[in-house]
Task: structure prediction
Amino acid sequence: MESAMEPTEKVSANHIVPAERQGLVVRSAALVARGLRDLARHSNWLTTKVFAGRSPQAAISFRGHVCAVAPHTKGEPQRLVLYDIQRGAPALALTVPNEAMSFSSQLAAKAAFSWSPNAQFLIVAWGLWEPTLHLFDLQSKMFLGTFGEFAEFPRCMTWSNRGHYFVLAGSGGQASLSLWAARPGGTVLSGQPTSRIGPPDWSERQDISEAAGDEGTFAGYGRVAFSPNDSMLASAVEIKGEWADDSIVFVGLPSFKQQAVFHTEGHITDLTWGPDDRHLLYCAAGQAYRLDTQSLESERLPFGAELSSCHPHRALFVCFSSWLKNSAKGRLFLVDLDTMDVLDEHPAENVVDLRWSRDGSCAYAVTRDGLAYTYEPPF
Amino acid sequence: MAIETHPSKPLVKPEEHELARKRAEQSAIESELADCELRAANLRAELGAFERRYLHFVGSRYAELDELHAQVAEQVAKAQPDNPRAQQAARDARARANSTKSTAGEKAAQEPKPFQASPQLKRLYRDVARKIHPDLTSDRDDRAKRQSLMAQANEAYERGDETELTKILAEYECSPEAVQGEGAGPELIRVIRRISQARSRLSEIEAELQGLLRSELHQLKMRVAEAEKGGRDIVAEIVAKVDEQIAQAKRRLEI
Result:
């Protein structure tokens, strides 16, 4: 597992170094490519078709790589494929040793992915493989092995921002949150989790009825998000029931002890921390909220969202909402939470994952239908 | 009985016969090389002119845009001195702004003109290439001199400077290197080597041409030319897109 990526290189502030004399084409290649890209873009969004057809599961990395269950072709076995959105083409098929060929669409539809912070490593759980986590090194294009067996398919899993931790959120009535902590100098994950939290104590039926205002049962942990400085983990607690409401549990690190619980309204579809390590933006029942994690006061924000991702060092969120006021059409958009300005709306449907690059120079989104969006902020 | 006499044929040595054959081959390849150099020079000049136009209108705007981005990133970094990511983002943005400024260069006061060579200029360049091409000599000193003159000729061609090309040609023709050596044997070896060098250069030019034709610069140039037929100005469209980004960045900087 990687350690935090701290800046090491110093660049002089205002000194302009004349470009070396280069070949005609090399000299201006970057600016020409940029012009061609800008020509194709609409507003600050660039759209690329990554694959044809519809994928049951897809996710996007910090570097704009898409991992997806490839759209099924009749008579062909199901496959997991890594796509390059710059080229709009498959880059790598993910395979494991002794992989059985399977044509089951139902099993293939279950997939969970998590990239390491520098996008070198990818952890995959897939319904067609053994019920364990599969680790790939995308740089050397190697399958490194498996770890972390599970009984119920993971609902969500994620690596922490600085690469110190990896967490898996299980589904089902006996689900747990499993945490792997990086060993000093270690580069990959292995073995069983270093810590585990089972179903929350307050998730007994009676407590839930009191807290959430309806009959409901604990259905597992949902979306998880590490705070930027890796000191806290927030996880959705999913409550099954037509009118039941989910909760958010806050877990301290490295102790991995529950510190607070916040009961929300509706089912949570996404969680993302603000850059200040204090505020959490969560999306529940299509509405966006900001939660102060110290006072546990929640503020309803003036926009709807189902997915959201925060810029690495600014209170700027890229969001997706499948419902647009007066038109019922989905949109991707940016929100500056300092000013509450909504910027750069762009039509989009079926977005399943959103992510900012590590340096904040662009944001990515991917849809079930193989469209990838790249947002380059005008700042 | 009268004896018939035939006028005696001059005796041609085998190496002289071979030399004549090789000289004909050299002449043909010189001609091909000159044509090829002319094609490459045309493509280079056309792309060079297009690049200057692109950098003048678009590159200068990207330099302005990246400078604004760098200023915004520096503002954010200043406001968040303990945030290493913000500091790194500011350094990255500044490095990018410097790089773009360096590539775009100083914006010229005059709008760069497209390259257009007259038939006279093309003929002149072809003559120069045929006579002073560095790959048509086997003498080291002569080759160095030809390389220098050829570089001057390429620049003059790109500028459309007929006077300079005429001067270069005259200068070389009057030089001692232009005088042919004596003796069929050594001359045959020289000619064979020149043919070999010329063939090698032909392959190099072909590879360079392919590289230029595959480049994004050439692709953009083709798109611009194609769009112009339909009344579209693609460079202006890119300029409009970058201007939009500049306006957004300026607003961001003012907040």
